[in-house]
């Protein structure tokens, strides 16, 4: 008998070191796994064709309309993470291709990181550490410091991670306010966050933590205009997407003192360029897109990202299909 040919899933790119977890999931569900390190559309197309892939799992590589048109056998595209801005979801929907993510794998981890960055800024830890290492034992570079109970902690975006960050901030004694388009100003979010309007959020927040997806309407949302409306001396934490913040506007605001400090885990260009001016500010704390990581989240991300796309391809129930409604609508029309 001719052995049955297993369908193939392609990991377009991955910097995790190994894919043993993904291999176990693929084997359990009856798929062959092929890996590549694609950087652009052409490389994804070439690798997908060579593998005969029916599913793609991507970290940073783009899955565009052109890629999907060139790989008609692909039935599902998954992304390592929450955001799917590297995938053309509309093009996928038009072709009946499921787009899957893992929206809740890093909720605790990213919110933990956001809180850690916020506390470091609010207590002046980077400047205090740098001063002491250079032989200066002084509080002057970080004055004034305020009690958490006297500080307004703003949360822009009250999804899973934003709500978790707000919950933890309230537990530390901050006055917490938030904005989310799903909730009306004057209401309370499901976790108990007081919802305000965007103007009030910017005007009142002494520290603002960003938890927004990168969409056309959120690109450079925190730019010169928003920073001009913000409370002078505001501190900014970004653990969501680099493109939400206009880097040039942030640098100008740091120069003018409109923003007194910032902690950034994500950047418009990653890795952060060696000549970026963000590296020059002692009041700017930088981490290398690390907020998602813990040993627990790492395992969960890899396992669930692979499970989602292969369960869909196998006709099983995949819980995190971001374009499920569009796929169902297209099926109903057919």
UniProtKB/TrEMBL annotation:
Domain D-isomer specific 2-hydroxyacid dehydrogenase catalytic: 34-323
UniProt cross-references to SUPFAM superfamilies, sorted A to Z: Formate/glycerate dehydrogenase catalytic domain-like, NAD(P)-binding Rossmann-fold domains
Record-linked Pfam families: 2-Hacid_dh, 2-Hacid_dh_C
Ranges for domain D-isomer specific 2-hydroxyacid dehydrogenase NAD-binding: 115-291
Entries under InterPro entries matching the protein: CtBP, D-2-hydroxyacid_DH, D-isomer_2_OHA_DH_cat_dom, D-isomer_DH_NAD-bd, NAD(P)-bd_dom_sf
Keywords: NAD, Oxidoreductase
PANTHER family (UniProt xref): D-ISOMER SPECIFIC 2-HYDROXYACID DEHYDROGENASE FAMILY PROTEIN (AFU_ORTHOLOGUE AFUA_6G10090)
Family per similarity comment: Belongs to the D-isomer specific 2-hydroxyacid dehydrogenase family.
Protein name per UniProt: C-terminal binding protein
């Amino acid at each position: 008998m001719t052995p049955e040919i297993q369908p193939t899933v392609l990991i377009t790119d991955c910097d995790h070191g190994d894919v043993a977890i993904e291999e176990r999931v693929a084997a359990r569900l009856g798929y062959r796994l092929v890996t590549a390190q694609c950087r652009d559309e052409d490389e994804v197309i070439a690798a997908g064709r060579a593998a005969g892939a029916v599913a793609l799992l991507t970290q940073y590589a783009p899955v565009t309309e052109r890629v999907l048109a060139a790989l008609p056998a692909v039935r599902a595209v998954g992304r390592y993470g929450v955001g799917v801005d590297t995938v053309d979801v509309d093009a996928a929907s038009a072709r009946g291709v499921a787009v899957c993510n893992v929206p809740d794998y890093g909720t605790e981890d990213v919110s933990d990181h956001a809180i850690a960055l916020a506390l470091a800024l609010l207590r002046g830890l980077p400047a205090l550490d740098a001063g002491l290492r250079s032989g200066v034992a002084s509080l002057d570079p970080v004055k004034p410091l305020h009690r958490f109970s006297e500080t307004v902690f703003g949360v822009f975006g009250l999804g899973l991670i934003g709500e978790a960050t707000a919950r933890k901030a309230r537990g530390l004694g901050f006055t917490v306010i938030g904005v989310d388009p799903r909730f009306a100003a004057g209401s309370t979010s499901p976790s108990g966050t007081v919802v305000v309007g965007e103007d009030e959020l910017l005007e009142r927040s002494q520290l603002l933590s960003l938890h927004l997806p990168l969409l056309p309407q959120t690109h450079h949302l925190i730019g010169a205009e928003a920073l001009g409306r913000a409370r002078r001396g505001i501190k900014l934490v970004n653990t969501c997407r680099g493109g939400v913040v206009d880097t040039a506007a942030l640098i100008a605001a740091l120069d003018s003192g409109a923003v007194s400090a910032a902690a950034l885990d994500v950047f418009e260009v990653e890795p952060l360029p060696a000549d970026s001016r963000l590296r020059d500010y002692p009041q700017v704390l930088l981490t290398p897109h690390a907020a998602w990581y813990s040993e627990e989240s790492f395992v969960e991300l890899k396992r669930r990202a692979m499970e989602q796309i292969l369960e869909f391809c196998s006709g099983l129930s995949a819980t995190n299909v971001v374009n499920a409604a569009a796929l169902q609508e297209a099926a109903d029309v057919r």
